[in-house]
Design goal:
alpha+beta, four-stranded mixed beta sheet
Length: 232
């Protein structure tokens, strides 16, 4: 049984599925990506997501119309949580019907989440054939270097990150956020390969704000995660 925030919310209006083969079968039959929400009932960020983003009409409509939304509780499916959790709860992971990862985020504010859902749908619909072929490729020898990113894929990912970039406080998203190291590494990749100074400056802004925040431990180093925000 799914559990939602105890405070008023409309997250139950999303047509949630269980994590099983039937969800992937439905995704293949309807040619839609899956949206996996890993939540914890005690998690304040998860409850806030229920009360804000998942209670917005546009979000509910987009998830029900263009995705196969799946929701799991971390205590009920620790196997799924261990495999897909990224930086905490909620973790929201998007997949093709064949299980190819499209994106993974944590808490995202309503309007940012609407924009992210639209971009993921556009990317999936524009690249369905190429994404389907990923699953069919033979296993790559671990000794071989990874295949280079295609220019089109780089542009798509860069566009998604630019849409989520917080140019005032750093990081990605305009509300509570966690440090997405992969996003920062990708921004540095764009700077190193294409000389995009704005990408380097955003990483510097992000790390600088994090260093100035109350989460930084001036005595022993490292960061605390229990304060309200990692960047403000």
């Amino acid at each position: 049984m799914l559990r939602f925030s105890p405070r008023p919310n409309r997250a139950h209006l999303v047509a949630w599925r269980e994590w099983d083969e039937s969800a992937f079968k439905e995704a293949r039959e309807q040619n839609k990506p899956l949206a996996l929400f890993i939540t914890a009932f005690w998690c304040g960020f998860c409850q806030r997501m229920d009360e804000t983003s998942l209670s917005e009409d546009e979000v509910i409509t987009l998830l029900n119309a263009f995705f196969i939304p799946v929701r799991v509780e971390e205590s009920q499916r620790p196997d799924i949580d261990l495999r897909y959790n990224q930086n905490g709860w909620p973790t929201i992971a998007f997949f093709t019907p064949d299980g190819v990862s499209l994106a993974t985020v944590n808490y995202v504010a309503p309007q940012d989440f609407v924009g992210l859902l639209v971009r993921i749908v556009d990317f999936y619909q524009s690249n369905r054939v190429a994404l389907a072929e990923i699953q069919e490729e033979p296993a790559v020898d671990p000794a071989e270097p990874p295949a280079p990113l295609t220019p089109h894929l780089v542009e798509e990912v860069a566009g998604i990150l630019e849409g989520l970039a917080d140019h005032e406080y750093g990081g990605y998203g305009l509300d509570l956020k966690l440090l997405h190291t992969a996003a920062n590494e990708f921004a540095l990749y764009l700077y190193e390969t294409r000389g995009e100074q704005a990408q380097l400056e955003h990483v510097q802004l992000t790390l600088g704000k994090l260093r100035e925040s109350r989460t930084f431990d001036d005595e022993d180093g490292g960061f605390f995660r229990r304060l309200k925000s990692a960047l403000r």
